[in-house]
Specification:
- The complex is a heterodimer of chains A (190) and B (170).
- Chain A has 190 residues and is mainly alpha-helical.
- Chain A folds into two domains: 2-153, no CATH class; 155-190.
- Helix content of chain A is 78%, strand content 0%.
- Chain A is built from nine helices and no strands.
- In chain A, helix 3 packs antiparallel against helix 4 (64-84) and helix 6 (93-117) runs antiparallel to helix 8 (129-151).
- Chain B has 170 residues and is mostly helical.
- Chain B has one domain.
- Chain B is elongated.
- The chains are: A mainly alpha (190), B mainly alpha (170).
Chain lengths: 190, 170
């Protein structure tokens, strides 16, 4: 705990907190990194799950370097944000839920890479249940990490209520999407 | 000009009541806004950097079929953004019109969104949209399409940047 207090009071932490631009710039770049990382990996996962099946899958790998850039931006900005208020963040279970979700998401990206893209025929590999399970897990992990990241500023009852509300909204959107997709023939029964 | 508008303009009583009564409405909208951003900016980024020459083996005619999902993201952002805007008073005791007047980040964000919209119009009006439609694997986009793609990427990343700063401008 002494280390965390010292970290929180360090010259760097104080400079970022007291600067009128540094703190908000770190937050803003954290969101930009998120759009690159989650956007590109999420689009790849959606393609594996059957969205826009006519779009070739193999070239998606060429976008992965930008996904890596997004990850590095978030690793850097996330570390800075943790250094600002470590005595608050690192005793908060929600931060561990967020970090655990990110770690599992990164593992899923790696598994998709080796299971689908490292194979000579990514299209065939993407049809396997294993690939679809990785893709679905990846999307769930990103959802959990976004929710955890957002609710961290709120009290416990609000956190729980928000998580429940997100669950209900996402379930409703998926159900409506499934029913519309079935009725229009976009989703075929297996 | 904005100062002359009635300060309660854009305020919606039922949205304020929702935010005031249910503490989870605001963070729920924040989550929806962020999910919308990942759809919107993530997919537009993929499309823009392909226009700029990355991943040429991806046919643009097929990649553009992904774009409706960015529209879905935009709709999520607009809906949740409207909740923030029309219910602002219930959360931070600032009128929406006042926020438009005093918050430079909100003004810049809205300008960037407007420019991004004009950029999309240029894509269609210049005929580049039709050219792109026929671009297969390995084919390079024309210089104007690359410029439109680079402009789009700059503007949408800017929208995220300035949008994140809005709470500090109020």
């Amino acid at each position: 705990m002494e280390f965390l207090v010292a970290l929180e009071a360090s010259a760097f932490s104080m400079w970022v907190k007291e600067s009128s631009t540094a703190y908000v710039a770190v937050l803003a770049f954290h969101t930009i990194g998120l759009t690159f990382l989650v956007g590109i990996s999420g689009a790849t996962a959606m393609r594996i799950l059957g969205v826009v099946p006519s779009m070739p899958l193999a070239p998606m790998a060429d976008f992965f370097p930008l996904m890596l850039v997004g990850f590095l931006i978030n690793l850097l900005t996330g570390s800075v944000l943790l250094c600002l208020y470590p005595t608050d963040y690192l005793v908060d279970p929600v931060i561990y839920i967020k970090l655990a979700a990110i770690v599992v998401a990164l593992v899923m990206i790696n598994k998709i890479n080796t299971h689908v893209f490292a194979h000579e025929d990514p299209e065939t590999r993407a049809q396997t249940k294993t690939a679809k399970r990785y893709a679905a897990t990846l999307l769930c992990m990103w959802l959990i990490s976004i929710v955890a990241g957002r609710v961290i500023a709120y009290t416990l009852p609000t956190r729980l209520q928000t998580a429940a509300a997100v669950l209900i909204v996402v379930s409703a959107v998926l159900l409506v999407g499934y029913l519309v997709g079935r009725s229009r023939g976009w989703i075929k029964s297996s | 000009m904005l100062e002359q508008l009635p300060e309660t303009l854009f305020q919606l009583a039922f949205v304020e009541e929702l935010i005031g009564t249910y503490r989870w409405v605001w963070p729920l909208c924040e989550v929806i806004h962020f999910i919308g951003l990942t759809f919107l900016v993530g997919i537009i980024t993929i499309f823009d950097i392909r226009l700029m020459g990355v991943a040429k083996s991806m046919p643009l005619s097929e990649l553009r079929r992904l774009l409706p999902w960015s529209v879905f993201g935009f709709v999520l952002c607009v809906l949740s953004g409207l909740v923030f805007f029309t219910g602002l008073w219930a959360n931070v005791k600032v009128h929406p019109v006042e926020a438009l007047v005093i918050d430079p980040y909100l003004q810049i964000k809205l300008l960037f969104i407007a420019f991004a919209g004009i950029n999309i119009l240029v894509l269609y009006q210049s005929g580049m949209s039709k050219v792109i439609e026929n671009l297969g694997p390995g084919e390079d986009a024309p210089a104007l399409a690359k410029f439109i793609g680079a402009t789009s990427l700059f503007l949408w990343v800017g929208v995220v940047y300035w949008g994140r700063l809005i709470p500090w401008g109020i």
